[in-house]
Write a structure and sequence with these properties.
Layout (H helix, E strand, L loop, with lengths): L1 E6 L9 H6 L4 E9 H5 L5 H20 L5 E5 L1 H12 L3 E5 L4 H16 L3 E5 L22 H10 L41 H13 L5 H4 L12 H6 L4 H11 L2 H22 L22 H9 L5 H13 L4 H14 L4 H11 L5 H12 L13 H8 L4 H6 L19 H5 L11 H11 L4
Parallel strand pairs: 1-2, 1-4, 2-3, 4-5
Helix pairs in contact: 4-5, 6-11, 10-11, 11-16, 13-14, 14-16, 15-16
The structure holds flavin-adenine dinucleotide (FAD).
């Protein structure tokens, strides 16, 4: 008896329901398919490919320690799985359920192809979420559109137990693999890109739960303090299990751990929205807005935003962090998204696309729905809030440390004066002439926003 375990965004050995189900007294082919359709859809950004390469190497190493190995193929996912099934004479395939429209179509095609040949596909829930999409629903709807009641039910949901990695994995002979990719072969990577793989992910968790999570409630918005977990790429690639994380954080307990678990619920929340409304990846979810400035008219502003040259230091610092690390602090994501969609009045899809080009944690559910939230087309109950970049900067970077870290042109300025360089005069102003003037006047941006939303 042979099973194929198809890894997708669950690149780990600990707490892995498909592997656990398949590994039970059977031989297993641990398989990853580099799906050419993902590349064709433009989703294969260099930063994520590099992180993926780390994850696959680490997964292979973990399997080898247990007597197995990873089989890698590339091509059409359904074709490649079917080929491996035939080569190994496997009778079943186990994989994690996923939420996007693309993933659903792929699962459907795979199921049909396998069943036509007398084989079975087993989909497993709670591999990439703590609570499965659709497991909790409000009366009269297939999903929650508001987070607070979702979170109440999510918190009351019993979690399955988390389990360890298998002791051994037996892989049948005769199934060939391509060579594993390496990040060294890739170009265009962010210089400060994090390392991928379950081994580093698990070390991070241990360190975070020992020292870090306790201060999370107070410090998660602190831009210079950088006091969040940075688990997002690991959750995206599944080197960490959400179920296991929730269990371990709850065991630590306290306000920090509670606040952290709440953020994990936000992740599940967006996934259950996308699972039920798959067009929300591209279409306005709740409120339709179609008076965005055209990309052509706004092209200079969009470029300045992408390059971190808007003249608003905190916006520029966050955009430069994104380019340098392939990651951005959540507060930075909020205020740069507000700036693009509300102050510059540019369609959220333009910003979401740029984020997906660079973010190592770039994730259709989290990225698109957070963009919609900030743009006022999504699930935010205050869709017309506009984040003022100067107020935000003074609140979340009071001494200007974060701005000076990312904007060398402003490194010579002291204290919070760094947030409003346009107010400087004389020699002070001359010293920073490499830094641009603001590309937009905030009151004018606000007036344009109100006109477009019919609120003046
Ligand atoms: P922590 O604060 O330590 O939180 C722990 C985990 O909770 C995160 O790793 C993440 O999985 C989850 N989480 C935290 N905040 C959110 C949130 N608002 N929504 C959903 N899940 C959350 N997150 C992504 O994983 N991928 C994206 O592509 C992405 N795009 C975003 C785009 C915008 C415009 C905004 C405003 C937010 C986006 N987020 C995205 C959510 C959030 O900013 C990141 O998850 C978070 O900054 C990652 O850092 P962390 O792991 O240190 O988070």
């Amino acid at each position: 008896n042979v099973s194929v375990v198809l890894f997708t965004s669950d690149l780990r050995l600990h707490d892995h329901p498909p592997l656990r189900a398949a590994n039970d007294a059977r031989e297993v082919v641990p398989l990853f398919v580099r799906d050419t359709a993902v590349d064709a859809a433009g989703f294969a950004a260099p930063n994520r490919l590099a992180f993926l390469a780390d994850c696959l190497r680490d997964l292979d190493a973990g399997l080898r320690e247990r007597g197995g190995r990873l089989v890698l193929r590339s091509g059409d996912l359904v074709d490649e799985v079917c080929k491996v099934v035939a080569e190994a004479d496997a009778d079943e395939v186990h994989m994690a359920a996923d939420v996007s429209a693309f993933a659903h179509r792929r699962e459907h095609r795979l199921r049909q192809a396998l069943e036509a040949d007398g084989r079975r596909l087993h989909l497993h829930d709670t591999v990439t979420t703590a609570v499965a999409p659709g497991a909790v629903t409000p009366a009269g709807s297939d999903h929650f559109a508001v987070f607070t009641p979702y979170f109440r039910q999510w918190s009351a949901q019993p979690l399955r137990e988390a389990f360890g990695a298998p002791r051994s994995v037996r892989v049948p002979d005769g199934v060939g693999s391509e060579r594993l990719p390496s990040r060294d072969a890739l170009s265009g990577l962010s210089e400060g890109l994090a390392e991928g793989g379950e081994t580093v992910a698990r070390k991070r968790v241990t360190a975070w739960l020992r020292a870090g999570v306790q201060a999370y409630e107070d410090r998660h918005d602190d831009l210079p303090g950088d006091a969040t977990s940075r688990f997002s790429p690991h959750l995206h690639f599944g080197t960490l299990s959400p179920v296991e994380l929730v269990h371990r954080a709850r065991k630590v307990g306290g306000p920090g751990a509670d606040a952290f678990v709440r953020q994990l619920a936000w992740r599940d929340f967006h996934r259950q929205v996308l699972a039920a409304r798959q067009d929300a990846a591209t279409a306005d979810y709740r409120t339709k807005h179609d008076r965005w400035r055209s990309e052509r008219t706004a092209s200079a502003d969009i470029e300045a935003w992408k390059e971190g040259r808007t003249g608003y230091p905190v916006v520029d610092a966050a955009m430069r962090q994104l380019r340098y690390e392939g990651w951005m602090h959540n507060r930075g994501r909020l205020l740069t998204a507000s700036f693009l969609t509300k102050t510059l009045y540019v369609d959220w899809r333009v910003g979401a696309r740029h984020f997906l080009d660079l973010l190592v944690d770039g994730d259709v559910a989290n990225n698109q729905l957070n963009w919609q939230w900030m743009a006022g087309t999504g699930t935010d109950s205050r869709p017309n809030r506009v984040l003022n970049p100067v107020t935000q900067a003074k609140r979340y970077d009071p001494d200007g440390v974060y701005v000076r870290r990312w904007i060398p042109e402003l490194a010579g300025l002291s204290g919070p004066s760094v947030h409003e360089p346009w107010k400087l005069r004389g020699l002070d102003r001359a010293a920073i002439d490499a830094y641009p003037d603001p590309i937009v006047d905030l009151p004018e941006g606000l007036a344009r926003f109100k006109r477009a939303r019919g609120r003046d």
